[in-house]
Write the structure tokens for this entry.
Amino acid sequence: MLATATTATLVGVDGHIVTVEVHTSNGLPSFTIVGLPDAACREARDRVRAAVLSSGLDWPDSRVTVNLAPSGLRKGGAVLDVAMAVAVLAVTEQVPAESLRGKAFLGELGLDGAVRGTAGVLPLTDALRDHAVVVASEAYHVALAASPREVHPVRTLGQLASVLAGRAPWPDPPPVPPQPPPVPVPDLGDVIGQPSARRAVEVAAAGGHHLLMLGPPGAGKTMLARRLVGLLPELNRQCAMEATRVQSAAGLPLPTGLATRPLLRSPHHTATVSALIGGGTNAIRPGEISLAHRGVLFLDELGEFAPSVLDAMRQPLEEGVVRVSRASGTCSFPTRFLLVAAMNPCPCGQAGRPGSCRCSDLARRRYLRRLSGPLLDRFDLRIQVRPPDPDHLLDGIRGEPTAAVASRVAAARERAASRGVEANVELTGPQLEHFAPLTPAAYAALRERLRGGLLSGRGLHRVRCVALTLGDLAGDEPLIDAERLDEALTLRASVGKLHEPASAGAAP
Amino acid sequence: MTAGAISVEASTAEELAELGALAVLCSLPHMGPARLRALLSGRDALEAVDHLRAGRAATLAGLRSCHGVDEPLIATWRRQIAAAFERAAIDGHPVGTDLLAAHAREGIWLWAPARTDASEIWESDPEPPALLFGQGAAIDPEVRRVGVVGTRRCTAYGRTVAQQLGSGLAAAGVAVVSGLATGIDGIAQRSALDADGPVIGIVGSGLDQVYPTANRTLWADVARHGTLLSEYPLGRRAAPWQFPARNRIVAALCEVLVVVESASAGGSMYTVDAAAERNRPVMAVPGPITSAVSAGTNRLLAEGCAPVCDVADVLAALGEPPRSDAASGSPGLPTAAPAEELDRRILDELSAGPRTLDELALQTGTGLGELASSLGRLQLSGWASETGGWWETAR
């Protein structure tokens, strides 16, 4: 006797269709799963059997063999439980075999027969788009986001068996969860004083420029990073889909289905390369840089991250995608995120203030050595953040609130969209030349700085990009004038350079 | 070759044997000037090597009185000396000939101040080095020498002054003596080199062990166009205690010592003490009382050191006539004050010390755009500079 059911398994952030074949034959009663199941998948034996029995259904007194095809693909997790159970029910003729045709089943089984949601429902449903997908009730809205042909939510295996046997209609979908009250995003108005930090956060949000904040602990760097997320506009459908796929694959909670707010991820500095970039031994999981896709990755204490971890971020930062290869296969994860980093340039708390810092050269070099030049070059905005003046704190005068700044950011992003990019940071050299030419004065100023060694060729493009964003925020003509350039340059502190005699010759 | 520089080819057999023995002693691990003096007091190097090899009680007693010399260290030294004798026996040369040859191959000459007649530099020196290793030109006694030293963590002000002194002294044909460190030392020597002036660099490690590595180019340039000196043989790594020892040689080689910027307990104060011990006049550059790296120099001024307000002050202390063509004034700074009112207000604010962009915006009450334009002007005209987000004026 043979029956089949369709389901899917997750590889990276992509779903792959899997056919569950169940065969029963005479012999000692047993239950075997073949076809490269991983540990969680192999444990399905016990769950499926218990769930079938708890649901008041019969378990065959014969040899049961389950094959997961294609057998070369490694299947992970408990998402195949329901498909195995219904195939067993079909092979024992408790439900008609035809009722499984055209349907796909996603879900984990509890011992009591409950159907539970699993990680990766969105990409899995996406892969099963041509099927009527049966999912756990709790995963209904996430599955719906993939817009498949049909989605049916079920709560228990018993319920599902009744529907398939034609004894009951499909249960009603769970009510649309009320739009959750806007998560209390901390308001930019709480940032008091610190005009350049506020400005840098606004520019970073508008242009997607990576931001590096230098300053002692307690200066408010983390506070600024949290407020930056609030300035970013809602994700459009395309971006939200990309972000949600990763978040779903990683098993993050997705109460409303599609994640439309950009996410802030702030991994601790002990993160390993695999945790940040993606990887893992059993299944290849997306890393923090992919979870922050279309959101913000905040690295506090940047200098404390292992240099190998930071350098591994360079290529994904540049290409917007990371290909993680393991012996078991290769996965691509999207990595377009806004990098915000904070560091304390020296241990004494003076943040490198010339003439006051008492740290040894060694201590300062130790910090800077961890940041390779190419990584530092990615930061278009680099600012010193000092603790706010106590007088300003007591005055209680609040800064401009998030709503006002966010509307400027949204307008600037719209202008960027009219150039065919999500944010100005993605503009290439020729595009920049086309969309934002330099005024003669700005051209002269840049030439003087390049000659004086105050700006590198690599820095030139970045500075022009930031200047364009500054113009977008002000609602100006996309023409880069000297004033915008000056501001872009002052928001780009020279980091990683100690007072070397070699630089003495560069002064005018 | 002048002032005692010895080339290996030009020396007699006895001289070579003595130099070889000295080189062997210098190459012993943890061997510094004080221990060498204890070894060489009342005997020449050949005798000292023999005594150490044979474990002569009187010599060892003198050594044991030195701080930090213990039996394992003496045992290590004796083993190494025995090995040196074995190598010498195989080659059939006096002990240490292989070391001399290794240095000669690298173009390094030797200078033994204690035994040559380099006179007025070392005659009254309390701690003359037994042997110096040199690269580049030998020291010309006709050229006047001024030490320019200071902190490694200098401000823009210190940088400007060090540049000004380096190029000013170079223009007056005076040699800049310094320690090739990061900060003031290196900047003064780089500026002197750029102005084609004579430079004498004294380092605290073997001549092949560049430290700090960031100064590799400067190190090579000093060896090529000036004089590079070390008390340590090839291969000796930098160690913390070797730098104060190096500073005494800076003090001994200069005729006037100028401290540009130094914290009150900075390494430059070793040089100052060593200079005072050797009756070298010490001068100091006044600085803002709010700056920690001017605390040392301001204290020196309070204690009676002459202030340096100009290169001419240093030349006067040397007894050199001020040269009209010598760069006095401020080569790093434009002469005309900035015209814009905001620029002047920013410079006023910066004259009290380094500021961040935020601090400037709040103090001057201007928007970031306007502030940025002003800072851009000041930076391009050389009035202000920025490092790690800190704005400074060189005024």
Remarks:
- Chain A touches chain B through 51 residues (CB under 8 Å).
- The radius of gyration of chain A is 28 Å.
- Chain A has two domains: 2-164, 188-490.
